[in-house]
Specification:
Shape: globular
Order of helices and strands: EEEEEEEHEEEEHEEE
Number of domains: 1
Number of helices: 2
Radius of gyration: 18 Å
Number of strands: 14
């Protein structure tokens, strides 16, 4: 029997044609976390209905095993979120990359994702958050961002059955996000930023770059 030797690139991680649906993160992590990976590539991946881990999501997807352990999660959306909730408990974004030198996003789609938010946080972003970064960022072909409207979206209020309320002053707009779509730190060094997106009305529907129903507060 002939053995085939598979050799991987230890300097690169590539995601291709994955769909991430109804996942929940907390504890200061991203939905997907990369630390110290030199090169991170995404191509033809979809992110749908992902967000912070809250009691409602554990009740539905994790039974009651952790439902009462709110120290592990961001908390219950029906409480006043401005009371005693630390940003360190929140999800940092869909993709968090620390200490890398190349990031490439090609043909990605983000639909109805959300973050639990009480205030603006420089270490959070809706889609991609970079930290201690030195290198190049490329966004290629198609980028679709649809129904990113904040916490009170159809998935949170419908499927999870949650609602958010604040007593803070001034009141926070619950139908928008306070975090940008993509962010890196002022101390990061982006040597090259390539935005090469398709925006051609003659191409087939679904293959174009779309930003639809995106609310930023």
């Amino acid at each position: 029997m002939t053995k085939t030797l598979l050799v991987g690139d230890m300097q690169q991680v590539t995601f291709y044609k994955n769909t991430f649906t109804a996942n929940h993160a907390s504890g200061g992590n991203g939905l997907l976390d990369f630390i110290g990976v030199p090169r991170v590539f995404f191509e033809s991946d979809k992110f749908i209905n992902n967000g912070d881990s809250i009691q409602h999501s554990t009740n539905i997807y994790g039974g009651t095993a952790n439902a009462n352990n709110l120290n592990t999660f961001a908390g219950d959306l029906t409480i006043n979120l401005a009371y005693g909730v630390s940003n360190s408990l929140f999800c940092k974004g869909m993709i968090r990359i620390d200490r890398s030198r190349e990031v490439s996003l090609t043909d990605l789609a983000f639909t109805n994702n959300w973050l639990l938010e009480t205030a603006y946080d420089p270490l959070r972003a809706q889609i991609l958050i970079l930290n201690q970064f030195y290198g190049q960022v490329s966004i290629n072909k198609k980028l679709q961002v649809i129904n990113h409207i904040g916490m009170n979206n159809a998935y949170v209020t419908g499927t999870l059955g949650a609602s958010a309320s604040f007593s803070s002053t001034p009141p926070i707009n619950l139908q928008a996000s306070m975090q940008p779509l993509i962010k890196w730190q002022s101390t990061d060094v982006v040597l090259y930023f390539n935005l090469n997106l398709i925006d051609d009305p003659t191409i087939a529907t679904g293959d174009e770059t779309v930003f639809r129903n995106v609310h930023y507060y």
